[in-house]
Amino acid sequence: xxxxxxxxxxxxxxxxxxxxxxxxxxxxxxxxxxxxxxxxxxxxxxxxxxxxxxxxxxxxxxxxxxxxxxxxxxxxxxxxxxxxxxxxxxxxxxxxxxxxxxxxxxxxxxxxxxxxxxxxxxxxxxxxxxxxxxxxxxxxxxxxxxxxxxxxxxxxxxxxxxxxxxxxxxxxxxxxxxxxxxxxxxxxxxxxxxxxxxxxxxxxxxxxxxxxxxxxxxxxxxxxxxxxxxxxxxxxxxxxxxxxxxxxxxxxxxxxxxxxxxxxxxxxxxxxxxxxxxxxxxxxxxxxxxxxxx
Length: 294
Fold this sequence. Notes:
It is a single chain. 54% of the residues lie in helices and 14% in strands. The protein is built from 9 helices and 8 strands. By secondary structure, the chain is α/β, with parallel strands linked by helices. The termini are far apart. Strand 7 (276-280) and strand 8 (289-291) form a beta hairpin. The strands form 2 sheets. It has a 5-stranded mixed beta sheet, with helices on both faces.
């Protein structure tokens, strides 16, 4: 009984230490700097990381518990611990794989939510959390690595942190329509910009800003994104995503008649005027076409 008790205590403490080490490593890699983050469990961190991060962590945990721990604990007195570690390797590895599946689902869900936005009316129907997720997707499509809910502040302060090639943008999302954002909010974010040594601060809202807020932001690394500017930002990101998907699709499309590559064309006359379709690059020698998938 005493041996079993000691083994359980040993496993628990090493598990905690391992989780803490992985958590600190993930935070350091993901934020690319010294920005403080809210305390979260390592599994929660993995659900917000890319899915393959969970796979790598699971492989490391499996190899460590299955092979390294038994190889290190060769003392006969610790043979029970070595056998326990080896037998639990698959189970613990599977636990670390679960966040990867959740991460993949969340990525798909956020993408669908982002593409469903058609204007201010649809944005106002979102919850505050969904609003933040849509804004995060807009930055991801622009090539940023986005950390959600990453900073301090009176009402959450920093809702998103966007990183790209050494550039760090602090983003605060205000899901307001009827209320204008005033100077206090802008001044608070300017203070966080200075404290976190960020590149810029973006304040995003469905509504508008007061004249005093705009005056305060002028000449500072602060970008104020009101309702119309937000719609323009989302539309631009949606178009960029569609163009990228069409380019990927082009490399896979061949003419149904001659097998040549196809190019994106726009109908100029007829019932389908203005609509796009795939046409053979050998037109007019070949008139093969394919319908464009939305």
